[in-house]
Amino acid sequence: MFRILVKLKNLFYLIIYLCILYENCLYLSALAQPLPQRWGDRYNLAGLGAKLDGSASDAVTIQSIYNALPSNSLVEVPRGSRWNGKLAAPDPNKYVTWLFDGPIAGYYPSPGGDGDVNITLNGGFYAGAVSKTSKHFNTPASAFFWNMNPGFCGPFCSNYAQMPAFGAQAISGPTSSGNTSAINAELDSYGNGPSSNYDVGINSFVKKMGQNSVWGIVDDIQDFSAKSPGAFASWNEFDLWANGQDIPEFDPSYGNAQSGHRSLFYISGSHLNAAYWSAHQNVSAWSAGLYDKPDVTRIQVGVNGVAWLWYARTTGTTGSAQPNFPAPTEAVASYDGATTLTVSSVVSGTISIGDYVTAAQPVHPFQIVKQLTGTTGGAGTYQIALDAGIASESAFSSEGVYIAPRVTDGTAVWQFGEMYNQTIGSVLWLTGSLGDGYDTPVGGDSTIRINNAWLDASNSQMSSTASVVRVASGQIAVDFTANGTLAGRNQHTLSYSTGLAYSAGGGVVHRTFDDGIEARPVSITVAAGTTIADAASASGPYVLVKANADNSGVTVSSTLGNTGASQTIMNISAHSIYVYPINSAWAFYGKSVGSGTLLPPYSSVTAINIGTNLLFAEYHPQAP
């Protein structure tokens, strides 16, 4: 029995040896036989006969090996190879992955064939691809992550980190020198298709369909050093280096208000396209299952010259004729988070029982089932009901909402969405903490020349409530002659405070009040006393009062005391003053002849002399 077991054991070893020998024979004769057409075949380039010495003859050999390889093969290139990875005649319909156990020869490692991928595992990971004639999109390396966790806590539990599909982290240690970057992207653009091509160094493409907030780019720099910053301590830099003029000076469009051909920072915002309604169209509704990728059908519908968006509430097929899509009712409403909607005002339209309320809130449109109080179809309180499967909606206060019915269309149902054309809340909005400041939000230096205007809105459509420049009272709107120094600032300015004021050297030299009266520097009298006898006379059609203290007085020239002559007296100071008439022929409205009147700061009074009788006097109070 023992001898039989020994013989069986030796026979087993003999079978294994013959199998190994047979595999090696097949491997060595691979070039002499047709390669097996199996998906995912794995080969060794040196084992297939390549010398990998970088010679021209070896390049011919590698081309022959490549021609015999089946598509989707994995080819190992052993360490020490001097092949540069290039193929003279790649097949656009063949895809090969080349796995290099070492660096690829040449400055730019070239993937072998059209659509091929190179992977190196020496001194880090490198993946490369090339597109030559196949015109295919091919990504040499991609990272995919799908967050389907419905209970993962976010920012409201102090978890502000994102879960990315790809993460790169680099550390510049305390003893490091030179420049460190977590991600480096370089695009070499050599094409010449100015109107049909555009090359992008970094492309960030975000699709939004849910109610999550979406930030296209987050560039967050945090300085924990607790020291005053040095050179380039925190700096977001956008550089564009080129030659020549954007538009030549002899071009007819030179200096026009336009974006030009070169734009260092170009911003474009446009509404998304939406289909029009069509008969017997298959439409898809919003789906929110764990493994779903929502692809809701959206259509634009015009009502009274306004385009609105509707989206499919239920999947189905549209009917043979377009149904009536009404304009939505626009209202301002509050919701208690339970069952009551309070409509404070209806801007347009009428609310009907069965309509659905939608806007930024509620997240899921809910239905009006009963009016509880108020004007029928107008302001009042309404009972609402949530859709099946919706547990709750957050309360909101004084929000603009749309109210419209759902529209049945064949086997599909449409839900009103929003307006088709969009607005963008802000293009550039500065924020910070209380007490912080920005030196120059937008500025430049003397090395550049502005051909048109630093700020130009002449190409823009301005609504009736829009303004090219909007400032608050007391703010300097324009500084005309600043020269880039601290001492040269605010020497000639235009501002508003109870009137439009032009100042020079820190003082107002011209002011136009809201009632149209102008204060012009024909003469300025500084009164030294508190009575008419103490004040100096001033000539000119207007008397501009500059008061050094309260109760200072001012007088007008006696040459203006003729019958029928009028005189406007203005207080352009921040003080209150008393104004007295020159003689008994002058009087002010509501005052006895010869008595004075009080002028608050920046106010004026007009009196008309008809001899000894009061005809009319007008008082202009301080503007709000």
Enumerate how many helices there are, as a single number. 2
Biggest β-sheet, characterized? Answer: 6 strands, antiparallel, barrel
Rg from C-alpha positions?
40 Å
Low-confidence runs: 1-9, 11-39, 521-544, 557-561, 582-586, 612-624
Average residue pLDDT: 79
Supply the helix-strand structural class: mainly beta
Shape: extended
With strands numbered from the N-terminus, the spatial order across the biggest sheet is 10-11-14-13-12-15
Number of strands: 29
Beta percentage is 15-25%
Helix content: under 10%
Q: Span from first to last CA?
A: 119 Å
Kindly summarize this structure in a few lines.
This protein has 624 residues and is mainly β. It contains two helices and 29 strands.
Structural account:
This protein is mainly beta and 624 residues long. It contains two helices and 29 strands. Among the domains are: 42-129, no CATH class; 282-419, no CATH class; 513-620, no CATH class. It has a six-stranded antiparallel beta barrel with strand order 10-11-14-13-12-15.
Salient structural properties:
single chain; mainly beta; 6-stranded antiparallel β-barrel; 5-stranded mixed sheet; 2 helices; disordered N terminus; disordered C terminus
